[in-house]
Every structure is written in structure tokens, then in C-alpha cells.
Amino acid sequence: MAGEPQDDCLFCKIVAGQIPATIVRETETTVAFRDINPQAPVHILVIPKAHYENAAALAAGAPQLAADVLAATQAVADEEKLDSYRTVFNTGGGAGQTVWHAHAHVLGGRGMQWPPG
């Protein structure tokens, strides 16, 4: 069920404290932690504490929580002193989503090319 923790979800386990992560920011509704396979000098994932499969499901099911995730990405960028950065939501396997819990990638600390990927 949307919003409920999933036993087989890596990010739900991080939220529950069952799997360690390098947490850089936490609010009542979000958690931000360093990616274990960084693609930039700064690569932080920002997730809602509630489980939604992807960004589309999050936006449809909990728009205020989606806004909280976006606000947390800005706070992370500020804390990391990034004057420019990229925020990415991969939605679906074809877009590169590998963990089925909505999450934003905050990437910075180097120049970003366009188009990505």
C-alpha cells in the first residue's frame, strides 16, 4: 500500500535504521544520505520517509510530501555549499530507477553536461 513501509525496500530499511547510511539531513518527513556509488563529488539521495514507488506515485498520492522532498533537496544543496546542482528523479526502469522508492538525486561539485545520460 502506498505510504506504508515495504519489507523488501532498501530505502524503507534505511528510514527504519535497519541498514546504515551516511545521513546528512533528516526532517519529520524526509531523509537525505550520501549515495554509495557517487556520480559526482556531491551525490546525495533525498527520500520521503513514506514509501511511494516513484516520483509520479509520490506526486499523485502525497503532493505535500513531494514538496517536502524538493525543499529538502534545496536545503541539502545549501548545506553542501553548491551554487549550482542537478536534481534528478528517475521514474521507471527505462529511466534508470533501480530502487522502487521515490528519491531525488542531488548532484553537484562538477560541471554537468546536457543532454544527460
Automatic annotation (TrEMBL):
UniProt cross-references to InterPro entries, sorted A to Z: Histidine_triad_HIT, HIT-like, HIT-like_sf
Name of the protein in its database record: Histidine triad nucleotide-binding protein
Transmembrane segments: none
SUPFAM superfamilies assigned to the protein according to its UniProt record, in alphabetical order: HIT-like
Active-site positions on this chain: 103 (tele-amp-histidine intermediate)
Molecular-function annotations in GO: catalytic activity
Superkingdom, taxonomy of origin: Bacteria
CDD domains named among the record's database cross-references: PKCI_related
Chain ranges of the HIT domain: 10-117
Source species of the chain: Streptomyces filipinensis
Motif (Histidine triad motif): 101-105
Pfam assignment, any one: HIT
